Amino acid sequence: MKLKVDFNNMMKGFAGPVEGFSKEDIDALAVKISEAHQNMKEKRAAGEMDWRKLPFEQADVIKDILETAQELRTWCENFVVLGIGGSALGPLAVQTALNHLHYNELATEKRGGPRLYVLDNVDPERVAALFDVIDPKKTVFNVISKSGSTSETMAQFMIVYQLLRDKLGNTYAKNMIATTDAEKGNLIKIAQEEGYKTFIIPQGVGGRFSELCPVGLLPAAVCGIDITELLAGAAYMDQLCEEADVYRNPAYIRSTLQYLAMERGKNVSVMMPYTDALKYFADWYAQLWAESLGKRKSLTGEEVFVGQTPVKALGTTDQHSQVQLYVEGPFDKVVTFLGVSRYRQEVAIPKVFNHIPGISFLGGHSLGDLITAEQMATEYALMKAHRLNMTIILPEINAFTIGQLIQLLEIETAFTGELLNINAFDQPGVEEGKNATYALLGRPGYEAKKQELEGRPEK
Ligand code: PA5
């Protein structure tokens, strides 16, 4: 069950002589690719990319997660993730990919585990709405924050803390699980003082690279997802991506083509799954790609701005909206389709209305035939218009292939960071916003930032 990467429509002959790339274009980057490969090795040795170890080195953590999940599944009706960004998008993407698309609405026996809610915003209406549909006593709240200080997550946590204390008194701690750094931040201190079950986000695993540590594995296991298979898939892909030869490494070839595209002004990267199950993968990818690669760098005193704006689309839904722009709008995009060879369910289109040829041709096909044809048709329309596009094909959606997809896209992102010569693992732009929020709401230590904010031009 190996993922396939089809990049034909990025190449001359498919994407046309002007837009497409040649083997010579790729080979001209040989030195850069080899340096990037070397840099990745050095960063790994220095512990800066420990997310690559996650599929291999978590035996004790997995045991703990599985035991915890098993126990929770006996009594817990709702499992609520409190987190944002990298602490929320992965759990949501994996849950949607691997569990029933109406999982929360299934009867308890069919679900076999608690409903899952991922509260990744502080919209008061959304938070209040959640409390209308859950019984806090039968709910476990998994507060996830690497820094242990993000305002949104900590505010949610404080609200839930008070709620649980009011409802459950001193026994409330069994309804709270903290996933955070081993030392840094306030959350670990509170968790230890209050006696919460705690899971650790390892060093060298940044927010958006954390899906395969307890951040993503605990919610997945609690909802019955086979996390061992997820990690096995990631390990399999990781090994494929050890290869130095760009033509044999699926992450490197995608990354190199994206890099070439960026050099030619393709500033937009669209991810368009042709399955609702991967809809939230496009959200997860959008964060990974944007936050890792959208950077300002200084080159001999001159400032350069790099990155690609990620766009989320869904096939076939967005064929009837965005695809017009992709086919005829500016030549500024690379589209990645996510396709599946076999859908897990099939629905037949009945042979009815035989007297109306304009629709009767659909009868006898399945919805799988239709969506596959639609994907092929969109790829064709883009190719005909010389628009760059690639396809990642999953033989089927299962824990093993989803593990592969996560690792593929993470390695591709990190490698693109090396090609761009930027740090893919920091996020100064996001931190600036976090710090400004602390200052505006009066966090001690942020007085200078507050002054700076007050000095901003009046609107
Ligand atoms: O990728 C990142 O580092 C960010 O998106 C973080 O995941 C996000 O800001 C949440 O941070 P934290 O987990 O520290 O609360």
Automatic annotation (TrEMBL):
Active-site residues, as the UniProt record annotates them: E291, H320, K434
Subcellular localization(s) per the UniProt record: Cytoplasm
One GO biological process term: glycolytic process
Alphabetical list of Pfam families matching this protein: PGI
EC number from the UniProt entry: 5.3.1.9
Major localization listed first in the record, in broad terms: cytoplasm
Catalytic activity: alpha-D-glucose 6-phosphate = beta-D-fructose 6-phosphate
PROSITE patterns according to UniProt: P_GLUCOSE_ISOMERASE_2 (PS00174), P_GLUCOSE_ISOMERASE_3 (PS51463)
Pathway assignment: Carbohydrate biosynthesis; gluconeogenesis; Carbohydrate degradation; glycolysis; D-glyceraldehyde 3-phosphate and glycerone phosphate from D-glucose: step 2/4
CDD domains per record: SIS_PGI_1, SIS_PGI_2
Keywords of the record: Cytoplasm, Gluconeogenesis, Glycolysis, Isomerase
GO molecular function, one term: carbohydrate derivative binding
Domain of life the protein comes from: Bacteria
An annotated GO cellular component: cytosol
Recorded family membership: Belongs to the GPI family.
Functional summary from the UniProt entry: Catalyzes the reversible isomerization of glucose-6-phosphate to fructose-6-phosphate.
Full protein name: Glucose-6-phosphate isomerase
Organism: Desulforamulus reducens (strain ATCC BAA-1160 / DSM 100696 / MI-1)
Gene coding for it: pgi
